[in-house]
Amino acid sequence: MSITIAILGLAFLILIHEAGHFFVARAVGMNPRKFYLGFPPALVKVRRGGIEYGIGAIPLGGYVKIPGMHRPAPSDLDVHLGRAKLEAPDLTGPVERVKRELAAGETAAAGRALGELEADVASRKLSPSAAKAAERGITDVGDALAPDAYWRQPTWKKVAVILAGPATNLVFAIVLLAVVYMIGVPDVTTRAVESVRSNSPAASAGLLPGDRILAINDRPVAADRISARIQASEGQPLSLVVERAGQRQVLPPTRPKVDNGALRLGFSLRPHYRSRGPADATSLATTQTWEVTKIIGTSLAGLAKGENRKDVSSAVGIVQGSSQALDAGFRYYLGVLALISLSLALLNMLPLLPLDGGHITFSLIEAVRGRALGREVYERVSIVGIALVLFLFAIGLTNDIGRLSG
After folding, report:
1. CA-to-CA separations, 108 to 78, 96, 144, 145, 146, in angstroms, rounded
2. DSSP string, 317-373
3. Where are the beta strands (DSSP E) in 18-113?
4. Is 189 or 400 the better-scoring residue by pLDDT?
5. Which residues, at least 6 apart from 90, have a Cβ–Cβ distance to it below 8 Å?
6. b vs e for 82-102, b when ≥16 Cβ sit within 10 Å of the residue's Cβ?
7. Could you tell me which residues come within 8 angstroms of residue 295 by beta carbon, excluding any fewer than 6 positions away?
8. Residue 42: is its pLDDT beyond 90?
9. Is the dihedral of CA 322, 327, 328, 330 positive or negative?
10. How far apart are CA 190 and CA 268, in angstroms?
11. What is the pTM of this model?
12. CA dihedral sign, ordered 336, 342, 348, 349
């Protein structure tokens, strides 16, 4: 169950990211054509106000189709109408007319020629697959020629729409952390044992939840020094002195084991939680978000130099960490979810296509040039960005497999 909730949490973060793009695009008059819960193909869909809303068959995150992300190119028609031209060769002339206008940059004339091509395609008897592909190609080019197409908008609108996704994740991270602070975060650690992991050294020694740890190897120990004392043992047997039901008991010696790079006996102490008011919680959440942002930024910079390879994780590790946090308690899960949301925001701001940061960078380049870049430029640069993203994913997946296999 915890893994399912962790997967749904990650999907929700992707969904609100896409929702940020969707609502800001509508606000600035760049009307999206589709908004899905999950990814297509659609299980259920309905059209309202020119927008297709649906539930996708792939139940992860969300999907938004913003019209005309790139300036339309003549090759766009070849991709989708190749089959239609084979079945109806007389469509070649109308297709070439649209391509000529697109190549010349005459968008108004291209729009008129596209309307004629659409009528020509509708009048031909094509196979279902050829007709569907042709319809999709004409629709995509028509969206790219529409007045609300992304590539035709002022720079500030394009940047606002793309920035909305990461900004939504950033704000959501702060909100989640503020909620955690209002619920209450550990202030000081007590001597009381909160939980004992099954099959752990502590469990074999007979340690029980509710025991108060008084000493280790007959030496009194403060609550905040218990972990350090276990680390200092270097794996030698430890004997815990506890208070149970008002009675002092000495548990048999047991050796700590290495777990996630540290010596542990397999128990957790009960913390004392301190809750904050909304204003104080929001201030602390904002400060913590900034501190974590600096840490993640330093880690990404180190990764570019070939360092911090072990810090990278894939979706597998993210789900595993979220699941473990959920097992520890809901407040810890919210904290981890906030960290994941912040990480999504920062990762998407990298200046690589097809990430959001890449689209923002290219929008600024187009503003300096005074004209839009062609689709082929985006596609070539995107190949490099996709390769780097896949490389990071491969590193993260390798790290996750290593951690899961011990």
Report:
1. 20, 16, 12, 8, 9
2. HHHHHHHHHHHH-HHHHHHHHHHHHHHHHHHHTSS-TTSHHHHHHHHHHHHHHTSPP
3. 34-48, 51-65
4. 189
5. none
6. ebbbeebeebeebbebbbebb
7. none
8. no
9. positive
10. 10
11. 0.76
12. negative
What are the tens digits of pLDDT across the range 298-324?
Answer: 877 776 666 666 766 655 566 566 666
How is residue 405 written in tokens?
Answer: 């296999």
CATH 2.30.42.10 maps onto the chain at: 187-274
pLDDT at position 73 is 84
Place of tokens 């270097």: 234
* DSSP SS3 for 168: helix
Runs of H (alpha helix) within 184-262: 201-205, 226-232
Residue 177's closest CA among 280, 270, 272? 280
Asked if the peptide bond before residue 278 counts as cis, ω within 30 degrees of 0, the response is no
Element (H, E) at 194: strand 185-196
Name the CATH superfamily, with its identifier, for domain 187-274.
Answer: PDZ domain (2.30.42.10)
The model's confidence at residue 269, banded by pLDDT at 50, 70 and 90, is: confident
- The helix or strand, by DSSP H or E, that contains position 116, with its residue range, turns out to be helix 107-123
Structure tokens at 258: 């290495």
Take residue 353 and report the two structure tokens written for it: 């296509």
Judge contact between 56 and 63, C-beta under 8 A: yes
Q: Cβ contacts of residue 251 below 8 Å, gap of 6+?
A: 205, 206, 207, 239, 240, 241, 242
